[in-house]
Amino acid sequence: MLILSVESSCDETAVALVRDGRQVLTDCIASQVPLHRIYGGVVPEIASRKHIEAIYGLAEQALEKANVSRAEIDAVAVTYAPGLIGALLVGVNFAKAAAMALNVPLIPVHHIRGHIAANYIAYPDLEPPFLCLVVSGGHTMLVDVKDYTDMEILGSTRDDAAGECFDKVARVLGMPYPGGAALDKAARSGDENRYPMPHTKLSGNPLDMSFSGLKTAAVNLIHNTRQKGGEVEVADLCASFSRAVSEMLLPRTETALEQTGRHVLAVAGGVAANSRIRADLDRLCKKRNVRLCMPPLSLCGDNAAMIGAQGYYEFLAGNLADQTLNAYATKSMEGETL
Question: Minimal CA–CA distance to 12: which of 172, 145, 162, 136?
Fold first, then answer.
């Protein structure tokens, strides 16, 4: 089954062709990073307009690169939630028009389910059940993937996502957008013990997380040091902050593995590219004799290939949409797709 898939939830316009949920024929991405770097972050209105300008050309490019005709497309999949509402609407409306014109099924895909499905592309032999740690710019959660479309959130952040905190601290340090990658690079040469960072303890669900206090502590440290005429050691602060984030994620991931009895841990989302988190997860899985699946960096960020991968399984489960499909800025990934 050949699926034309579309992703436009934030500042990446992407169109891919994916066969049977595992084989990527092509994944074309138009990045807006240079444009938004001027403003230090994503400007929603600009992002939406750029999606409009890029999406049709990307679809044509995808077909040309894969040497595929429109008649060969069996379905159209699209990210419909969550994300920037204006950006999502561009992709959803394009996908609805394409599905109608081609007279093929329209498949709505939740963005986080798509990130999880990136692992199916990177690891063609991977099948549920498994545990997945989702760490992206807007989401941080532990998900029990019981089946391809049956997932349960075991724990999540109660406030900021880990990726959001990386970007905010990097911005205060004067690093270019996207800050998370720049912070990670700087952290590799830093002393992680230089700046003690808080570790939030929560009541209730032991798998829930909180990063707002950690973010505030780092930002206050930078501001207070500068107000006193000093400067923080950037590499050391980045290393200390990265360590603190990882130390919030690792114990909860280990507890989730114990509770579920899963023997496979997958990682998904843009923050999965962070070198400290990847290294710590690798050590954890070796200690527990658990298989670790971490997609290559190219599949950690937003892309359309992951939407096509998950779209295939949504299709098999009968999760289809019609021309009334709408976009949603926020929506749970559990339960029914719509």
Answer: 136
Structure tokens at 83: 């994300």
Domain range annotation of the chain: 2-117+301-316, 128-298
Which residues, in sequence order, are bridge partners of residue 333? none
Q: Would the CATH topology of 2-117+301-316 be identical to that of 128-298?
A: yes
Q: What is the pLDDT of residue 270?
A: 82
pLDDT at 335: 63
Which pLDDT band, with edges at 50, 70 and 90, does 179 fall under?
A: confident
**CATH architecture of the domain with residue range 2-117+301-316:** 2-Layer Sandwich (3.30)
pLDDT at 17: 98
Angle at 122 between CA 127 and CA 115, to 5 degrees: 80
H or E segment and range at residue 163: helix 162-172
Q: Where are the alpha helices (DSSP H) in 103-145?
A: 111-122
**Rg of the chain (C-alpha set):** 20
pLDDT at 338 exceeding the cut of 60: no
Angle between helices 234-260 and 212-227 (to 10 degrees): 170
Give one DSSP letter per residue of 4-46, joined into a string: EEEE-SSSEEEEEEEETTTEEEEEEEEE-HHHHHTTTS--HHH
Cβ count near 252 (within 10 Å): 19
Residue 194 corresponds to which amino acid?
R
**What is the C-alpha to C-alpha distance for residues 65 and 58, in angstroms, rounded to an integer?**
10
- Of residues 81 and 31, the one with the higher pLDDT is 81
Mean pLDDT of 42-50: 88
CB-based contact 30:49 (threshold 8 Å)? no
Strand partners, 12: 31
- For 55, 76, 103, 142, the CA distances from 71, given in Å and listed in that order, are 19, 12, 10, 40
CATH C-level class of 128-298: alpha beta
Q: Is the pLDDT of residue 110 over 80?
A: yes
Answer whether 310's CB lies under 8 Å from 23's CB.
no
